[in-house]
């Protein structure tokens, strides 16, 4: 399946560089680009009306007219099926954390290798949440997802005790910010098996999404550093 991608960044050089990277990848298609959030929403509306909406939006956060945080919030509210992957230069960018709170599906540093970018695009298109290992801890703290107190930790630990050793391995890897592909390579599993394990974990633990799995991993004291 071809993954259609839209690039949103106010720097023309960045848009061109990302476009070149996408064109070199089999299974990825550049659906368009925009220089700010407002232009991006107009572009997405045209593509959706034409029946060719993108699967993933690569979104810078610091832009004129309409920044990436506000644009992400509007996009995810209007087109829930579109996945927004936030790109930023700084691993402590408050704007980027705001975009995650606004519904972005992932967070990636602009200086990440091309292989990481492509893997992240494929991951979010497949329904994953991408939090790189460099920023996962900060995301949890700043997004207010980490609950203090021994009661919260005891509750999380009790949930983890219900897991099989393999399920615990999967949860630990998710807590480290690994994608399904990376988990598969590390644990010698097929990516489809990892996806199945994660789906089962969500049901078994009564959690909503991957971010909540990350939170549980931290709260329970699993080795996620």
Shape: globular
Give the overall average pLDDT: 86
Strands ordered across the widest β-sheet: 2-1-3-4-5-6
Secondary structure tally: strands: 6
Classify the secondary structure makeup into a structural class. Answer: alpha/beta
Major beta sheet summary: 6 strands, parallel
Cα Rg:
18 Å
- The proportion of residues in beta strands is 5-15%
The rounded distance between the terminal residues' Cα atoms is 34 Å
Element pattern in H and E: EHEHEHEHEHEHHHHHH
Q: What percent of residues adopt helix (DSSP H or I)?
A: 40-55%
- Indicate the low-confidence ranges by residue numbers: none
Number of helices: 11
Précis, in short:
By secondary structure, the protein is an alpha/beta fold.
Textual characterization of the structure:
The protein has about 220 residues and is of the alpha/beta class. The protein has 11 helices and 6 strands. The chain has helices spanning about 10-25, 35-50, 70-80, 95-100, 115-125, 135-140, 150-160, 165-175, 180-185, 190-205, 210-220, and strands at about 5-10, 30-35, 55-60, 85-90, 105-110, 130. A 6-stranded parallel β-sheet has the order 2-1-3-4-5-6, with helices on both faces. α2 runs parallel beside α3, α3 (about 70-80) runs parallel beside α4 (about 95-100) and α9 packs across α10 (about 190-205). The mean pLDDT is about 85.
């Amino acid at each position: 399946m071809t993954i259609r991608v839209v690039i949103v960044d106010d720097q023309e050089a960045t848009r061109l560089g990302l476009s070149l990277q996408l064109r070199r990848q089999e299974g990825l298609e550049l659906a368009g680009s925009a220089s700010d959030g407002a232009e991006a929403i107009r572009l997405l509306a045209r593509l959706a009306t034409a029946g060719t909406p993108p699967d993933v939006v690569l979104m810078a956060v610091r832009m004129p007219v309409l920044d990436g945080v506000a644009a992400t919030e509007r996009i995810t509210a209007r087109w829930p099926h579109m996945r927004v992957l936030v790109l930023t230069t700084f691993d402590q960018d408050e704007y980027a954390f705001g975009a995650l709170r606004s519904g972005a599906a992932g967070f990636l540093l602009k200086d990440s290798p091309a292989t990481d970018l492509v893997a992240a695009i494929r991951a979010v298109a497949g329904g994953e949440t991408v939090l790189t290992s460099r920023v996962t801890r900060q995301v949890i703290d700043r997004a207010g997802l980490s609950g203090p107190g021994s009661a919260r930790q005891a509750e999380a630990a009790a949930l983890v005790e219900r897991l099989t050793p393999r399920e615990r391995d999967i949860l630990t890897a998710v807590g480290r910010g690994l994608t399904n592909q990376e988990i598969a390579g590390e644990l010698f599993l097929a990516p489809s098996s990892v996806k199945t394990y994660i789906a089962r974990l969500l049901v078994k633990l009564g959690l909503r999404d991957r971010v909540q799995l990350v939170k549980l991993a931290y709260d329970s004291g699993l080795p996620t550093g």
